[in-house]
C-alpha cells in the first residue's frame, strides 16, 4: 500500500532533522533493515539500516561540525513508494576548517513506511576536499564490519 504525501514528507523531514543533530540522534528506525544508501559517484554503498544510521550519526560529526542538511523540495512519486528530494548542506569541515556546502538530489524507495534504498547525487569533489583522507580511518573504526560494500 502506498504511503500518503504527508507521511512521505514527514519521513524525509525527520530523516534530515536527525542527520543534522550532530550525532545526538540515530536514524536506524527510519530505514528497512536491508536498506542501502549510495552516493552516485562512489563505488561503494552502505548496507543496512544500522550502517546508514552510524554513517550519519557517528561518522559525519567527526567530519563536520556543525553539519545541517535542509530539504528544499520533496517530490513524492505517484504511487507513493518513491520520493525525489532536493536538499542543501552547510557545515564546517573539521579537516580544513573551511565552510562546506553542497546541493543534493536524492532518490528514495519506500517500503512499509521506511526508506529501503537511497541514492544521492552531489558535487563529489567538494565533498572529498572537505572530508580529507582521514575518512577511511574514521569509517574503519566507527562502522561495523561489513557496513560498506562494493557496488556490482
Task: Give a summary of the structure in a few sentences.
Helices cover 30% and strands 41% of the residues.
Name a few traits of the molecule.
alpha+beta, 41% strand, 152 residues, 30% helix, 4 helices, seven-stranded mixed beta sheet, Nuclear Transport Factor 2, Chain: A
Alpha carbon gyration radius: 15 Å
Distance between the termini: 30 Å
Name the poorly predicted regions.
none
Q: Specify the CATH architecture.
A: Roll
CATH T-level topology: Nuclear Transport Factor 2, Chain: A
Number of strands: 7
Q: State the helix count.
A: 4
Biggest sheet strand order reads 3-4-5-6-1-2-7
- Number of folding domains? 1
Q: Would you state the CATH class?
A: Alpha Beta
Task: List SSEs in N-to-C order.
Answer: HEEHEEEEHHE
Give the averaged pLDDT, no decimals. 94
Described by the principal axes of the CA atoms, the overall outline is globular
The main β sheet shows up as: 7 strands, mixed
Query: Percent helix among the residues?
Result: 25-40%
Question: How would you classify the helix and strand content by structural class?
Answer: alpha+beta
β-strand amount? 35-45%
Task: Explain what this protein looks like in three dimensions.
The chain is an alpha+beta fold. It has a single domain, classed as Roll (Nuclear Transport Factor 2, Chain: A), CATH 3.10.450.50. The protein is built from 4 helices and 7 strands. It has helices spanning 5-19, 49-63, 124-131, 135-142, and strands at 31-39, 44-47, 64-76, 82-93, 99-111, 114-121, 148-150. A 7-stranded mixed sheet has the order 3-4-5-6-1-2-7. The model has no long low-confidence stretch (mean pLDDT 94).
Amino acid at each position: 500500500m502506498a504511503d500518503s504525501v504527508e507521511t512521505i514528507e514527514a519521513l524525509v523531514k525527520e530523516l534530515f532533522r536527525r542527520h543534522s543533530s550532530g550525532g545526538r540522534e540515530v536514524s536506524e528506525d527510519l530505514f528497512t533493515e536491508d536498506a542501502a544508501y549510495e552516493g552516485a559517484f562512489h563505488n561503494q554503498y552502505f548496507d543496512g539500516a544500522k550502517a546508514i544510521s552510524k554513517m550519519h550519526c557517528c561518522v559525519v560529526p567527526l567530519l563536520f561540525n556543525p553539519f545541517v542538511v535542509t530539504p528544499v523540495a520533496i517530490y513524492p512519486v505517484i504511487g507513493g513508494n518513491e520520493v525525489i528530494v532536493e536538499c542543501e548542506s552547510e557545515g564546517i569541515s573539521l579537516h580544513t576548517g573551511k565552510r562546506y556546502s553542497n546541493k543534493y538530489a536524492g532518490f528514495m524507495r519506500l517500503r512499509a513506511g521506511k526508506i529501503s534504498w537511497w541514492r544521492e547525487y552531489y558535487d563529489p569533489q567538494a565533498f572529498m576536499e572537505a572530508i580529507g583522507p582521514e575518512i577511511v580511518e574514521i569509517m574503519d573504526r566507527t562502522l561495523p564490519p561489513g557496513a560498506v560494500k562494493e557496488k556490482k
